[in-house]
Amino acid sequence: MAIELEKSLFGHCIFAFVLNKDLPESQAQLLQSTLEAHGGTVIRFGEDVDLRVVTHIISQTSDFPEYNQARLQMIPVVKPTWVMQSILKQKEASIRPYTPDPKLIFSDVNLSCADIPIGDKDAIIGAVLAMGGMESSSLMKVTTHICALTIDHPKCQQALEKNLKCKIVLPHWFDDCLKLGKRIDEKPYLLPNPEIFRVNPEANLPFPTNEDIIGASSPHPVNLPLPTDSPVRRLTVFRKRKVMVSQDLQLSSRTRKVIEDLIEGGGGSMTTSVHNADIYVCHWREGRDYVFASRAGIEVGNLSWLYHLITNNEWTSPMRRLLHYPLPKEAISGFRDLRITLSNYGGEARTYLENLITAAGAEFTKSMKPDNTHLITARKNSEKCQAAEEWNIEMVNHLWIEESYAKCEVQKISDPRYTTFPPRTNLGEIIGQTQFDPKVLQTKYFSRDPTPSPGDPKPLKRPVMHEKDRNASSRKSNGDVAMGGRDAEAEKVVEKKKAGRRASSRSSLGQVTTPAPNRRISAGKENDTPSSTGSRSAKEKAVSRLHGLAPDIALYEKEKKRKGPIWGGERAANKVDKERSAERSSSPAQKHEEEAEFSDEEGHNPKRQRVGPPPVEMRLLVTGYKGWLGNALKEDSDKKKMRELGVLVTQEPKLCTHLAAPNLVRTKKFLCALASGPIVISTDFIDTCAKHKKGDFPKAGDFVLKDDAKEKEFGVKLKDVVARAKANKRCLLRRVPIYVTKDIPNGADTYKEIIEANGGTFGIYTGKPTIKKVNPEDDEGPAEPVYLISGQRPDEKKLWPKFVTEAREGNMVPRIVDQEWLLDVALSQQQKWNDRYLVEKK
C-alpha cells in the first residue's frame, strides 16, 4: 500500500524543466528519474514550455519567457527543493516557500525563534511568512535560521552541539532586510560575535562582487562578445526566433553581419519587418516599431541585452536588468535639473550607477560640490557623506535611482527604504536586483488607446498636431498635455486673443475645446459678459483646482525659505522666479520668433483661409554674409521673402536647423550653432531665395557648403564635424572646467557662449581661489585637466603660477592655453589635445 501511494504521489502532474547554469541538464535528469519513480510525467528537455500541457514548472529562476503567462494561468513554478520536500512529506509541499519569485526575499528561510520577546517574535514570523518563508516552533533538520539575542537559549546550544547547518542571527537582520525590501548578507548579524556590535561602523569594508550587473552595466557595449560555450557548440538561445535589429543602433555593416551570422548559425533568423519578429532590438523607447513590438508582446531589448544573450547563450528577459531595456529619449520626469554624485561604490557597480544616472536624464558629477542635489552612497561613511550633511545635500542609497528609473518618475526620498544604511553592510551587494514593471512601461510609453463604445461621449477637439508632435505625444501617458501643460495652453489662448480670434471655452485645466456648433454670436458684441451659469461653473472648478494645488503651494513656500548652499529651497525658487521674469522681458525679436512659431503650428481652423506666412520648415542662422552689411533694407526684404518660403531667420544657435555661411569660418555664431549639428549651407541660398517667387522653395540640399581650402587649413572634414556634433548633442565639453582671464582678447563673453554651447563649465579667473578641490576617494583614473585660456599680456602672465598651484592642489592637471585650442575643439567637435596649444611654448 505504501509503495502504491509513493508511486502515485505525482501521478497527476506533468513537469517541465527550465535549464540554466543553476539547473543544468545533468541535475534535471536526476530529478526526472525521481519524479517518474513517483508517478510524474516529464516533457522533453530543450523544448519550449507548453503551458497548455504542464501542471508544474521546475526552475531556479523566474527569468524565462513563459513565467508571467504561467503566473496568469496559475501554473506553479517551483525550485527543485520542492520535489525533495514533497517526497519527505509524502504529499505535495506548499508552493510559496519554494517559488523563485525575487520579490519573496525569505523564500529559502525556515525560521525558528529563540529568546525573542513575544511582540517582536510575532512581527518577525509574520514578515517571514509574508515574504515566502516558513516557521517552526521547534528545531528541525530543515531549519535554516534561528533568530536569537544570545546563544544561551537551548535551541542555539542544540544547534551548536549537533553542528546543524543553520545560522543564528540577530533580529536586526530581519529588520534591515524588511526596511530595504531586499535580502542582505547575514554575516554581520551572526552570533555569538556579531560584527555590527564588535566592529566600528566606520571601519573599512571591501567592495562586494555582484553578478546581477555583469554584462548589464552599460547600455552601450563596446565590443561584440563571443559565446562562452565551446566553438563547436552553436548558439541555441535564438533557436526558432526571428530577430529584428533597429536602424537607431547605428551598427556598422561588419558588426551587423557578425550578429546575423551568430543568430542564423544558432537556428534563428533575421527579419526587417517588426510584424514578423519575435525579438526587436533598438536603442530608444520611441518610434512606431517600438510601440508595435511592445504592444504585441514581442521581446524588446537593447544592444547590451542582445550581447548578453550571445555571451551566456541563456535566455533572460530584457526587463530583468534596467540597462538591458531601451533608453528613454527624454529625461525621466523630475531628473532634468539634478546633479548626482556617488560614494562607496566601486568597480562595475560604480559604472552601472553612472550610466543609470545619465540614462535617467540627470547630470553625474565625479566630485561633489555645494550645487549637487543628491549623493548616492552604499554606506553612510565617507568624506562625501560628511559634506552632504553639512551642505544639506540629499543622501540616499542606490535603490532610489533604480526604482525611479524603473517606475519612470523620480521617487520621494521620504521613503525610509532609500535612506536605510545597515551598519557593516555595503549595499553594493544588492545592486542590480530592481526590475521593470511592464504595466508602468505600457502606461508611459506604449499605452493602448481605449476603443470607444457607441454610448461614450464624442472626443474633444484638439489642435492639429504635426508629425513631430504625434511622436512626442505617443511617449506620454494618457492625460498629459502634449504642448507643455497648463502654462503653455494659457499662453496660446492669450496669443489667439491678440490675433483677433475668439478664445475657445475651457472644459478642463490645460485643455482647450471649441464652442458648441449651435452657439450664436451677435456681430459687434465681442465684449458680451458670459452667462452667470457658466461663470459660476468656472469659479467652482477654479476653487476645486486651487484646493488640489494647496499642498504643492505650501511645499513650494516652505522650500523657498530654506537656507544654505544647496540646490533647492530659496535658491531654486529664486532661479525659477528669475527665469519667469526673463521670459516675460524677452527681446522683441525673440517674441516675434515665438509668435511666428505659434501661428504656424497651432490654432489653425481648417475651414478658415490661412492668413499670414506658411509653416516654418527651416530655421536659419546666418553668419558672415556680406550682402547684408550696411544694407538694412535688403536684409529686411530678404528675410520677408524667405519667411514666405517657410524659412525663419533666427539668432538663437540652439534653435537653428540650418547654418548659412560664405565659407568655413570660426566666428562665434558659427561655432555656437555648429554644436547643435545643423545642416551647413552656403549663403548662396539666401540670394536664390531672394530671386524665387512665393511657393517655389529651393532645396537646401543643393547648397551644402563645400570649402576644400578651409577644410585643409583647419584639418577637418565638414561632413564628419556635423555628424560628430549631432552625436555630441551639445555635450562635447560636458564637465570640463574652462576658465578665461578677465582681459582676454575678443572679450570673455565670446568664449563663454562657445564653451556653454558645447556643454562646458565657464569661469573667469582673477587669481582668487576658484577651482574646487576634487575628492581623492573618487580619483579612480588619472587626474582630469582644467583649462585657462589666456593671452600674452603681463597682467595675464602673473596669474599663471597661481592657477597652476591651485589646480594641482585640487588634484587636477593645469593647462594654460591660447584661444586656438578652444576654436579647434569647437570646430572639429572633438576633445583634441597637443602641447602646441600651451602658451608657455609660444
TrEMBL record:
<feature type="region of interest" description="Disordered">
    <location>
        <begin position="445"/>
        <end position="545"/>
    </location>
</feature>
<feature type="compositionally biased region" description="Basic and acidic residues">
    <location>
        <begin position="572"/>
        <end position="583"/>
    </location>
</feature>
<feature type="region of interest" description="Disordered">
    <location>
        <begin position="566"/>
        <end position="614"/>
    </location>
</feature>
<dbReference type="InterPro" id="IPR001357">
    <property type="entry name" value="BRCT_dom"/>
</dbReference>
<feature type="domain" description="BRCT">
    <location>
        <begin position="330"/>
        <end position="407"/>
    </location>
</feature>
<feature type="compositionally biased region" description="Basic and acidic residues">
    <location>
        <begin position="486"/>
        <end position="497"/>
    </location>
</feature>
<dbReference type="GO" id="GO:0035361">
    <property type="term" value="C:Cul8-RING ubiquitin ligase complex"/>
</dbReference>
<dbReference type="GO" id="GO:0005634">
    <property type="term" value="C:nucleus"/>
</dbReference>
<feature type="domain" description="BRCT">
    <location>
        <begin position="233"/>
        <end position="323"/>
    </location>
</feature>
<dbReference type="InterPro" id="IPR036420">
    <property type="entry name" value="BRCT_dom_sf"/>
</dbReference>
<dbReference type="Pfam" id="PF12738">
    <property type="entry name" value="PTCB-BRCT"/>
</dbReference>
<feature type="domain" description="BRCT">
    <location>
        <begin position="5"/>
        <end position="100"/>
    </location>
</feature>
<dbReference type="Pfam" id="PF16589">
    <property type="entry name" value="BRCT_2"/>
</dbReference>
<dbReference type="GO" id="GO:0006302">
    <property type="term" value="P:double-strand break repair"/>
</dbReference>
<dbReference type="GO" id="GO:1990683">
    <property type="term" value="P:DNA double-strand break attachment to nuclear envelope"/>
</dbReference>
<dbReference type="Pfam" id="PF16770">
    <property type="entry name" value="RTT107_BRCT_5"/>
</dbReference>
<protein>
    <submittedName>
        <fullName>BRCT domain-containing protein</fullName>
    </submittedName>
</protein>
<feature type="domain" description="BRCT">
    <location>
        <begin position="120"/>
        <end position="191"/>
    </location>
</feature>
<dbReference type="InterPro" id="IPR053036">
    <property type="entry name" value="CellCycle_DNARepair_Reg"/>
</dbReference>
